[in-house]
């Protein structure tokens, strides 16, 4: 039996060689597969969602409707169906990538159709074995670990900022975060060769997990080190070129800006296969040492007469494409040049800026921002007098129908009490002390805040309800703002469509927006553009170029929330958003002004 030694340098060299030998085939597969996902499976998923909806006439669900729907039995069933489809599509993609890499490793002639057929047969075993653990591994652990193993179906997962912010407030949260991170790294490294074991040793996820845990014993640190090397290579490939492109921006704005996106393209095509190649190389090491047995697949998919003809045609088409690619590959310099030209050209088109509706793109302080206790007078004034064009605040009514500035009906998060605004009179509310870390403050009445901000900043007021109101939150809020003389310069928003209808019936001359938190199913942008509002406030992850274009055509502005990252802010400003809602309005002045100056050149 050959002695097994995990040599990091040899593994990295062999993995890079695998990528080099198979890169063109990996790109070809990804282009075809992503096209199939977009054209076939995405519409199928959207149709499934609409069929599960209570009312078949609706093709989408938004905001609070989503929660209500998912709490029903049909909602649970829909989640199960979508998870099954998702795991099939993701596992199949990862299987094909591993099979392509394996063929490259063995110096075999790569036949994509034959590889896709083998992957389908492997998929049959996964379905038969009911691999529940695989669902958790592929759809939860890999995205949470966030090392670039992005597939065609789901984007790279990242925790929303507000979740991290809430967790960080609990005692011992730093230690908990460190322990959680260590736990995730440990689990990922122990399961590092689970996919190759399933695919090449024909094991269920449960069996593969046990084998992976056993075979990588005492090698977790080496595997973690290899992952660090992958990330370091990624940084070397992308960060210095990006900095150079930033310096040269003023010389060739459009081409340079588009060229900077090449690094993102390289990332999606290179990192995931690279990690899988390292995993495969580790697996092969254990096979050679006798720790694992490898099983080859000789079975064929059973097809009818029509299926055989179709499969034959597909095989010929793919073979022609592969032959042409192989010829081009021999002229590597010309191939690289043409590839870069195509990528830059595509990015020039997709990266084209959309002209914002407003003369100036707005910075809006989210509940005042991260400069004190949220929704309090000092925090709001700081944001409003240090860069924010507007400050977003939340309004709820007390038990005696007085508008107060606070986001949650429950006071548990900020005051560590089970009391609720809906059950307290204004006098009782004023006795509550809010805490955020070491900061302490009171809950302001809208009347108090209005007097303090008059002439200093503008407000974006969000109407919220707790279903115990004895009066209209809209009427009470407007009454106070009008009395204090700041109604004219105030704009409004809400996530509740009933409030929008009520607002439009009574206050047509004022500006209101709709907060779009999320959707399930087909949600045509045209539906948003037809809403009787002046602007749409969209969650950062949901915004896209098509949405902005369509909304601008209908005369609606687009705000995005909550954007706390300079890079994301620049991307969104470039897309043409009209306002950025952020916890860091002071810090966001730099990217906003930089992009403004950049467009004026």
From TrEMBL:
One of its GO terms (molecular function) is glycerophosphodiester phosphodiesterase activity. It is an enzyme of class 3 (hydrolase). Keywords: Hydrolase, Membrane, Transmembrane, Transmembrane helix. One of its GO terms (biological process) is lipid metabolic process. Its EC number is 3.1.4.46. Signal peptide: none annotated. It comes from the Bacteria. The chain crosses the membrane at residues 23-45, 76-101, 134-157, 177-200, 221-242, 262-280, 332-350. Residues 361-592 form the GP-PDE domain. This is Glycerophosphoryl diester phosphodiesterase. It comes from Tissierella creatinophila DSM 6911.
